[in-house]
Amino acid sequence: MKFRKLFRLIFTLCIATTVNQANAQGFLKAKGHLIVNEKGEKVILRGMGLGGWMLQEGYMFRVSNLGQQYRIKEAISGVVGPQKADEFYEKWLKYHTTKADIDSLASWGFNSIRLPFHYNLYTLPVDREPVAGQNTWLEKGFALTDSLLSWCKANKMYLILDLHAAPGGQGNDLAISDRDPSKPSLWESEANQQKTVALWKKLADRYKDEKWIGGYDLLNETNWGFEGPKDTRGTAENKNAPLRKLLIEITEAIRSVDKNHIIIIEGNGFGNNYRGIFPLWDSNIVVSFHKYGNFNNEGAIQSFLDIQKNYNVPVWLGESGENSNTWFTEAITLVEKHDIGWAWWQHKKIGINNPLEIKLTKNYQDLVNYWAGKGEKPDEEKAWKTLNEFLENTKIQNNVFHKDVIDAMFRQVQTKETKPFKIHLLKNALTINAVDYDLGRQGSAYFDKDTASYHFTPGVNTQGNRGRMCRNDGVDIYQAKTGDYYIGHIEDGEWLQYTINVAKAGTYKLNVKASSKDNTGEISLNINGTNLSNSLSNPIKGEELKLYSLGNVKLKQGENKIRVVARKGGFDLKEIQLN
Fold first, then answer.
1. Domains of the chain, with CATH numbers?
2. CB 571 within 8 Å of CB 516
3. pLDDT in tens, 26-81
4. pLDDT digits (tens, 9 = 90+) for 248-257
5. What is the pTM of this model?
6. How far apart are the C-alpha atoms of 420 and 406, rounded to whole Å?
7. φ and ψ at 14, to 5 degrees?
8. What distance in Å separates the CA atoms of residue 270 and residue 243, rounded to the nearest whole number?
9. Pairing of strands 341-345, 315-321
10. How far apart are CA 569 and CA 421, in angstroms?
11. Cβ contact 508:525 at 8 Å
12. DSSP assignment, residue 422?
């Protein structure tokens, strides 16, 4: 979409957030179980993680087979050479996240940013240091952070620094920390640990007086077995002594230069295993946990509610997301009920479950296929053209804006009310794309039997939007060869609501454009809360799209809500037509 159009959409979705965003005051502090500002006012952090900018993970860009960032760079070098690969990454850092991105996130309602950073933008790896045991500081990372902080300050947003890729790498999930398993990890190298401590001291000294730095997230998602080789993910550890020791050492280094900022800690087992970490060693600590793919009930977060209560310490959902809109609304509602703020993951990638989507082009897909061993190697000229096309698509003005994601994270947390996804005005005739159903919660704007992914819950195999196209609700949206979107995998009892404005009250013919491979499908209507007797009771026949009449409907002048109900599923729906 065009840049101006994008920003018109942005500002129509501006959220009237609390005093915590507009009038934030001073350094954030831990006070009992709350995070407060300098006036002692409660602050609920509503944040976004900038995943993919300073640290790439393969899944974000459809190259999961490559995994770590260093391997992605090697693959790029393999098609365009090392010099152009370096140029690619310079442009990547310039294009991916800009002031326009931060301005947009602020306008949508976010009051904080979590920056997942890679240590190698700030200092050299230990095996490349000219003098062993010393630290060479690189200006690039600090300059990027300075720019980001200036954009956050302009928007009165807190910036939380998150060491996502520590020297050597902190876990066995290699892509998370860009870890090279042929080299000593963070936990296998004293030099890597010393460099980690030194980096945090350097950052703290640089930003000690910056009140819009919200806190220091010391070490992202350790997943490491300290007590035995079998626990590769760190979820079964009972002592976590090396992790506690390093967290204390980092804290002491920070406090030697910075007495002001919150220290944010994460447990082992991807941030959630805190056995052996307590008691806490500083009075200004926030305990972070991460939440993905489980149910959104109090049982799912009970261990952290216990920490919040028993230790009288603030708890923060430091990373979550990668799911459907329904899951987003439920998760945010759950944690805010308990005075817990959050930071979502992530603001853009290829895919629909984030505010901004990087478009997937045929040329890039061909390159991905080659890297996966499923296609021919492109020549250098074509590969470089493809990579530059991809770089252009990372810019916010070329991203696809998913207003449904923002609506789910903010408005839908507060209300069950629906609103139009698009303006549908009926004068003489109107065609509505089926995918343009209303914005709103499951059960209010639509009903689907499978609305979210619970991939970390054994025995639960739901997916949400099975087509993974267009919108991030539970509704299953697919793309035809023509490029048009349609709704498929429709099951018995599912429905979609469309709000339309009618210029003149009257009786209108209502048709649907649909198809069915299995010659099934029965549709009924609900108009303004009333179930109508007229329906399409004969099966929808044939794989070709055809118009099917549901008869005449009476519509009042002004706003009308039409629900298209699948009395029997098994069909695909493309359009609703009124004339």
1. 3-53+96-358+399-406 (3.20.20.80), 416-578 (2.60.120.260)
2. yes
3. 899 999 999 999 999 999 999 999 999 999 999 999 999 999 999 999 999 999 99
4. 999 999 999 9
5. 0.93
6. 14
7. -60, 135
8. 12
9. parallel
10. 24
11. no
12. S
